[in-house]
Sequence to fold (196 residues):
Amino acid sequence: MTGWIWIVLAVFGGLFAAKMAYALSVAVVLPRTRGALYVSTSRVRIRALLDAVPMARQQVLVDLGCGDGRVLSEARKRYGVRAVGYELNPLAFIRAKLKTIGCNGIDVRFQDFWKSDLSEADVLFCYLFPDVLKPLAEKIGTDVKPGAIVVSANFAIPDLVPNQVLRPGSSLHNDPIYIYKIYNMQGKPKGSDTPI
Ligand SMILES: C[S@@+](CC[C@H](N)C(=O)[O-])C[C@H]1O[C@@H](n2cnc3c(N)ncnc32)[C@H](O)[C@@H]1O
Fold:
């Protein structure tokens, strides 16, 4: 009987410790992530966006706030692209690093993406919150090369017109995914109605 009590205590203790580690890791970086929490995109949604955005092996996918690195891994697995992720949350960063050990072509950086140059991206993915997307639109305008694709999960990027809006079929995962092709018109990014 006492054996069971120890098992239950160990399970609840483990869950509590995991929750605390999550809360702490989010709290530490909150001022720098401007409220963007560490929440992962579901596999169903990642598959849907990869279906919609075919990539060539020599291309580079960048995930701004890569969480546990799942978008990087899936893109690398599917298309053989080089995948670069920026992450500030220490827990997410460690998970991403552990999950991608030995994976050539995946580069997870413990770095603030606002301080990075996004010009290497052929495909730029983000799952960030609306407060962040307004300044991100400006950074896209200055950094991202013409012809690159930007994918924003759940929230539209202000001032850009999406070329496509996906709604993955499953009722649990059908929040919109916005896809933009970036053209450089007098330095101002703009989506277009032409298909990707
Ligand atoms: C909603 S999660 C998305 C995780 C992953 N992209 C996915 O879709 O599964 C957003 C992540 O962005 C990270 N983040 C937010 N602002 C950042 C910044 N300025 N530099 C690096 N990472 C950032 C957060 O720590 C968080 O893990």
